Amino acid sequence: MSLAMRNKFVQQYANNYVETAVTEAKPHKLITLLYQAGIKNLNLAKVFVERKDYAKKAEHVNKVISIIFGLKSGLDMDAGGEVSQNLWDLYDYMARTTFKGSATNDVSKFDEVNDLLKNLLEAWVQMPSDYQNLTQEQLGKMRQQKAAQ
Fold first, then answer.
1. Enclosing H/E stretch for 74
2. What is the mean pLDDT of each run of 10 residues along the chain (149 residues)?
3. 27-148, what's its fold?
4. Which of 86, 118, 139, 143 is least crowded, fewest Cβ atoms below 10 Å from its Cβ?
5. In 10 A of CB 109, how many CB atoms?
6. 122-131 long-range CB contacts below 8 Å, 24 or more apart?
């Protein structure tokens, strides 16, 4: 088997593994994966700026911005109140800062957003396990009960 063929199989396996992990993940795990992917892609964007490979940098910056917009779109602004609004504003700032860093090849902007993502991830994984294990359906029922009160 050629090296190219072997690499293709490895990539397909990795893609299937990620797809399975995402489809089977509970909401808490999905957010964790998004934070981790954002951190990873910011680190890669920084490497590609240093290598002056701007096409690869753009690819990873686009992934980061998509991840941040995904996090924003998952916010429940009605149920989340002030916390959701603060996260919305923070995600908006992170997307703008990432874009500015990309436009100027300023890796310090990537570092700033990376630090914010790391802090969010650290706080997120400290959530009590009772909440970490809730399914989307269970979360929906909790929201309905809260709204009925």
1. none
2. 55 53 76 96 98 97 97 90 95 98 98 98 93 83 79
3. Four Helix Bundle (Hemerythrin (Met), subunit A) (1.20.120)
4. 86
5. 22
6. 124/28, 124/31, 124/32, 124/35, 125/32, 127/28, 131/28
